[in-house]
Design a protein that fits this description.
Layout: H1 2-30, E1 50-52, E2 58-65, E3 73-78, H2 93-99, E4 101-106, H3 122-135, E5 142-147, H4 149-160, E6 165-171, H5 184-191, H6 196-207, H7 212-215, H8 235-243, H9 260-270, E7 292-297, H10 305-314, E8 318-323, H11 336-346
Parallel strand pairs: 3-4, 3-5, 5-6, 6-7, 7-8
Antiparallel strand pairs: 1-2, 2-4
Helix pairs in contact: 3-4
Length: 349
Amino acid sequence: MAHFNFFSRMFKTITAVLLIGFIACAYQTTRPPPPNICGSTGGPPVTAPRIKLRDGRYLAYKEHGVPKETAKYIIIYLHGFGSSRHEIAVTTWEIVEELRVHFVTFDRPGYGESDPDPKRTMKSTALDIEELADKLALGSKFYIIGNSMGGQVVWGCLKYIPHRLAGAALLCPVINYWWPTFPANLSEEAYRQQFPQDQWALRVAHYAPWLTYWWNTQTLFPASSVMAGKPKFSQKDIDFMSKVAGRQKRKANVTQQGDFESRHRDMMIGFGRWEFDPMDLKNPFPGNEGSVHVWQGDEDGLVPVTLQRYIAGKLPWIHYHELPGAGHLFPGADGMTEAILKTLLLSEK
């Protein structure tokens, strides 16, 4: 009996040790590596002009176009998923000079040379933009354009800093399938149009955000197709990518501080539980002193056109522009620069 009790206790001890070890290993695999902060010891160098924000973080920015002192319009541009301050979807020198536009682009937190923000929310990013405008003396009001995931940030600006906006444009803004106002059958139908691995990746980002990094780095199941660089592009998007393949610049610097605080956190926030529903927003320009425009391709494989139409129907103050045959990359198509800028800046308010 004594021998039995001894082996029984030993077995329980070994089992407990193995269980603790398994849990510890599992926990470690879900934890992303710490970010490699720009300017820190061993970190990437700081090459961009930056401002210091209210909480001590640094935000890297870049200025384009005519000098702000002689500009007629000031625009802050928000880059999309996996991009940076160097990528701007709506700019050609001819139209910028003609309209006298001063552009400011910046690395969203965790991207490029902007410090990560572990507490990032839709509100904190909107306040970053307001602080950027103040530090650069861009004036009391400015225009804002957001592309793809950057379009989501525009919703945050319309919610939290509408008093600072002269107008806004959202270019194929990414949609969160869990916004409460969507009819369940409509969002479910749109959700099912995504690749199966993307459906799972989005579920994880929404219901178990702490597993987002693990899910998109493990090898047991297919991870997000967008993370893997193989998103659900239309044929026009694929043709466009082939056309501009040689123009891609500085891609290596986009996630140089780590994938987690840039792309993974984008997923966690973009498809997580929002603190507001965009379809509950009020008209930021009740006196028609400004305008808000949403541009959407009807063959966009990443952002369902059916949900974009529903949003536009719920917000009658939105000027909705649907482009037949266009995919997700339409902002880079010939002539779109002029159309987007002139519609935003010159259309009757």
